[in-house]
Design a protein that fits this description.
This protein has 524 residues and is α+β, with helices and mostly antiparallel strands. The protein contains twelve helices and 28 strands.
Length: 524
């Protein structure tokens, strides 16, 4: 006797995206720990040395956090007005910050004291960075100037005044002590050489520039503004290499990760996207509760910190490998029975273990031809809410067996309401639409002459079903009109053959429209 064939539920199962190595890698973070600050988070920067403290610039202070304990270790509150863009030096011993007071402050991390005060700007300083030799500081200000400062003498070395609007973005070359770039709200990115005190390159980003980033080689830089991230080749005279348009709102920040192999971008659309630094393809996306203004990542990708517009700081730490965290226990050896069973057979016997297949309740009912009970089994709340494809697969099996009418007949009250609720919820789904429209037709044929005998709740559910079908009919009519417009455009452009268009965009509104008309007439 042939074994019973189970219901094929894989037909309607939702196909999830394939997990790549990068998806697995960037999902190995713990749940975010949220820290509350006062006001929007302007900038986040990690110390290059262990234990990789991170500085959060917000309101009128800069706070340094421990990434492990998430507690504040140091606070710099020497600002009378808003502080901007605090940044660590490569040795982790100094920290510089700009501010609304048009000065640049330099702090000593170990003594928690201010060492230098660089004054000379006439407007707010939004970004400050240490140069590659750690002896100078580059500042980018709203007074449309870029200034290079000497740390020991506290003097201004050179100044560049090429912009015609606020400068809100800047970066220094990681390989050259003399090259730096600035981006302003005039949509232009300028590159300067401090040896000649001249501008050596200019590119147009076509949107106000919010952030700039050098790749580790120093020959390629990225500019972010509007919804675009553009990649430029400085060695080829500012040639545009790529344009990344993965965000749908303004991109606010850029960071380098994975030792230069990955690029992070944060945006007002509440996402942080991760790209490959070679192909510029999107590898993974991190979601946040509010618009992201700044993002930081520690060495080795151990900690990701994102600052949001509502003052929340999200801290995610990488999980330890379970294999390393849990050490295997050593087995205790016993010599009590040493010497026994020395003569072992040369041939091993493999005993196959019988695996008993567990059959689901609805399959058991189908096997006994109890169609009504099988339908009741898949109409349970936990099945309908978590695995609706199982319910649809059973209804399709009942259609194939010509037992759907028998399963739907003779119902009243709660069981009938559950069926109509399921139809109302999923009849507009792309995966289930065709099957459920047929189920709705059979349901109407069964109860068409008995609508007056039904209780009030099933009749209300029937009215809701009529409205749902009417909405679907209107949507199909709109899509059909859109299909005609697209066919006209494509045929005029002669880019796609008409046969391919008809094959790819064919719609069949007749079934849904007829169902809607039948349902409305039956309720009336």
């Amino acid at each position: 006797m042939a074994s019973f064939k189970k219901v094929n539920t894989k037909v309607f199962a939702r196909v999830g995206p394939e997990l790549s190595e990068d998806n697995i890698y960037w999902k190995q973070y713990t749940a975010p720990v949220l820290l509350k600050e006062f006001g929007p988070i302007d900038y986040i920067d990690f110390s290059p040395v262990e234990p990789h403290y991170f500085a959060v610039t917000c309101s009128v202070r800069v706070q340094v956090y421990n990434p492990i304990t998430k507690l504040v270790t140091k606070t710099y509150s020497r600002f009378k007005e808003a502080a901007y863009g605090s940044c660590f030096r490569r040795d982790g011993k100094l920290l510089c910050a700009g501010g609304e007071e048009a000065v640049v402050r330099l702090f000593n991390i170990s003594s928690n004291s201010m060492l230098r005060l660089f004054s000379g700007h006439k407007a707010a300083v939004h970004r400050v960075f240490f140069t590659a030799d750690d002896l100078h500081i580059a500042s980018f200000s709203d007074d449309k100037s870029v200034v290079l400062w000497d740390i020991p003498s506290e003097k201004q070395l050179t100044s560049f005044n090429e912009h015609s609007d606020y400068i809100r973005a800047g970066a220094v070359s990681p390989v050259s002590t003399d090259v730096l770039i600035s981006g302003g709200y005039d949509k232009i990115v300028h590159m300067y050489d401090s040896r000649t005190n001249k501008k050596i390159l200019s590119v147009n980003h076509d949107a106000p520039v919010e952030s700039l980033l050098f790749l580790p080689t120093g020959g390629i830089f990225l500019s972010a503004g509007g919804t675009d991230i553009k990649v430029w080749d400085a060695l080829a005279g500012g040639k545009l290499l790529a344009k990344i348009t993965q965000h749908h709102k303004t991109v606010t920040c850029l960071k380098i990760a994975s030792n230069g192999h990955r690029i992070l971008s944060g945006s007002l659309d509440r996402h942080v996207k991760i790209y490959d630094a070679g192909s510029y393809k999107t590898l993974h996306t991190l979601d946040y509760s509010n618009a992201v203004l700044s993002v930081g990542i520690s060495a080795g990708d151990e900690t990701i910190v994102a600052g949001m517009v509502d003052g929340l700081v999200s801290v995610r730490r990488r999980e330890e490998d379970a294999k390393d965290a849990i050490k295997p226990r050593r087995k205790k050896m016993s010599y009590r029975h040493a010497g026994e069973n020395l003569h072992v057979r040369s041939v091993d016997m493999v005993v196959q273990q019988e695996v008993k297949e567990i059959m689901s309740k609805h399959d058991e009912c189908l096997r006994k031809f109890q169609y009504s009970k099988a339908l009741d089994c898949v109409m349970m709340n936990y099945v309908v809410n978590k695995t609706p494809h199982v319910t649809v697969a059973l209804t399709q099996e009942l259609i194939r067996r010509e037992g759907l009418r028998r399963a739907l007949a003779g119902r009243d009250g709660k069981s009938l309401v559950n069926i109509i609720k399921f139809l109302n919820k999923y009849i507009g789904s792309i995966r289930f639409g065709r099957v459920l429209v047929h189920v709705a037709n059979v349901l109407l044929d069964v109860y068409e002459d008995h609508l007056d005998e039904l209780s009030e709740e099933p009749r209300k559910m029937m009215a809701i079903l009529a409205e749902k079908l009417q909405e679907e009919e209107q949507l199909i009519v709109a899509l059909t009109q859109l299909q005609g417009s697209m066919q006209m455009l494509l045929s005029s452009a002669e880019t796609v053959p008409s046969s391919a268009v008809n094959e790819n965009y064919t719609l069949e509104p007749s079934n849904a429209a007829q169902t809607d008309r039948d349902l409305v007439l039956s309720i009336a």
